[in-house]
Amino acid sequence: MRIISVLGCALLLAGCTFKGVPDPALSARDAEYMALVPEAEFDPHFARYEIADPTREAPGTIVVETKERQLYLVLPNGRAMRYGVSVGDEAYGWTGTARIDRKAEWPAWNPPAEMVRRWPHVHAMQGGPMNPLGARALYLSDRGRDTLYRIHGTNEPEKIGQAVSSGCIRMRNIDVVDLYNRVPVGATVIVR
């Protein structure tokens, strides 16, 4: 009987710490495009959960903990949404504070000139399932100037949890749709 009580208490406490969150509703285009990008196996540690807020930032703030490979959207009442992300590899990572300047669904990709010099095979492309920006992009600015960094989806979901980007914060497409639906233009983003 004691074991059952202990297990019951553990389950109740777990519900207070981590809470699974249903996927957002998708448009027909989202469902069609996302079906073309195979969802990879990934560590459940990088799944989307509602948790107790570890950031101590104001509600509405996005905090990216690059070492943890986690993005937090601070919610009211001491809660946060936690999403697994890929971050910039050591040579290209960045930290600082920015604001979401604009948001786009299935955005076009125009790689910066520096990236094209490094990798001459990359080229601009229209939005769609094979575009590296994925389903959504949140464009980051610093005092009104484009940082060239984004929080965006990916066509390589198997890399979530790794340091592999050129500085952008990548999310699974379903997760970036969820975040996109929750945050307004003007939201603060802190990358640590």
TrEMBL record:
Record-given protein name:
L,D-TPase catalytic domain-containing protein
Q: Which organism is it from?
A: Methylobacterium oryzae
Check the UniProt entry and state the signal peptide residues, or none. Answer: 1-19
A Pfam family (short name) is YkuD
Query: Is the keyword Glycosyltransferase in the record?
Result: yes
L,D-TPase catalytic domain location: 60-192
Report the active site residues.
H152 (proton donor/acceptor), C168 (nucleophile)
CDD domains in the record, alphabetically? YkuD_like
Q: What are the protein's UniProt keywords?
A: Cell shape, Cell wall biogenesis/degradation, Glycosyltransferase, Hydrolase, Peptidoglycan synthesis, Signal, Transferase
Assigned protein family = Belongs to the YkuD family.
The biological pathway it contributes to is:
Cell wall biogenesis; peptidoglycan biosynthesis
